[in-house]
Design a protein that fits this description.
Blueprint (H helix, E strand, L loop, with lengths): L2 E6 L4 H12 L3 E7 L18 E4 L6 H10 L3 E4 L6 H12 L5 E4 L5 H13 L5 E9 L8 H13 L18 E3 L2 E8 L4 E9 L2 E9 L6 H10 L5 E4 L1 H5 L2
Parallel strand pairs: 1-2, 1-3, 3-4, 4-5, 5-11, 6-8
Antiparallel strand pairs: 6-9, 7-8, 9-10
């Protein structure tokens, strides 16, 4: 079975990678590649080749509109756009309860290594009270903290429900980082960086640092393909590549 895909945000860095991957895959077909000048209706494809799945790799301010339009049109969606925190996901999850035949997969980071790093950090979070996240991205990234850092912080908080919140002293000091699910997150935006995240966990007499470093956008290829191939059967809301990999 061939999965017909429409990419919204096709001219961006991640969108360009996705377009190349889809065109090279035997089981995927690119039926629409939308840039900022396209009408959203173009994501539906044509009468001869309607889209099955919409891949959204746009901007945080645009992404909810893309997702709403796709769901209204009866399409499943893979979201690779940052900015989908728990606050934004809540109404989407609620809406999908009324659309049992539809599914949305939100992936903060398509890198398999990043998904594993986040899973490792959540597992370790049960044993340390001092935990902070430092994430770095290219200077062109317009949002902070990154979607990966937000997802990591939320999973850390979830893993610590029985133990209690992370120790985050001096939260009134601006340099202490933004609190995400109670975890301090520090964002760097630098030339020469693709993406890097370190979770630092501190305990009595020791620290543990879990770092994932992306050096090339090829790191996203396997995750993009896996998410697109999972999308037709998706129902409800799935958040994180880790959920698709059953980590």
């Amino acid at each position: 079975m061939t999965i017909r895909v429409a990419v919204v945000g096709a001219t961006g860095r991640l969108g360009s990678v996705a377009v190349d991957l889809i065109e090279s895959a035997d089981d995927l077909e690119l039926v629409a590649a939308l840039g900022s000048r396209n009408d959203l209706a173009d994501m539906l494809g044509s009468d001869d080749a309607p889209s099955d799945v919409v891949l959204d790799v746009t901007l945080p301010a645009v992404s909810p509109t893309v997702v709403d339009f796709a769901l209204d049109a009866g399409r499943n969606v893979v979201v690779g756009t940052s900015g989908w925190s728990a606050t934004r996901l809540a109404p989407l999850k609620s809406r999908l309860r009324d659309l049992p035949e539809r599914g949305v997969i939100v992936v903060p980071n398509f890198s398999l290594g990043s998904a594993l790093g986040t899973a490792f950090a959540a597992a370790a979070a049960r044993y340390f009270d001092s935990i902070e996240i430092v994430e770095s991205h290219a200077s062109s990234k317009i949002d902070s903290p990154s979607g990966t850092a937000v997802r990591t912080a939320e999973l850390i908080a979830e893993a610590r429900e029985e133990r209690g919140p992370v120790a985050a002293p001096h939260t009134d000091q601006r340099a202490r980082g933004q609190q995400v699910a109670g975890v301090p997150v520090h964002s760097l935006r630098l030339n020469g960086v693709v993406a890097k995240q370190s979770v630092i966990l501190g305990g009595a007499g020791e620290t543990l640092t879990i770092t994932h470093d992306t050096t090339d956008s090829r790191a996203y290829a396997a995750g993009i393909l896996h998410a697109l191939r999972s999308a037709p059967a998706a129902r409800g809301l799935t958040v994180g590549l880790d959920r698709l990999l059953d980590l």
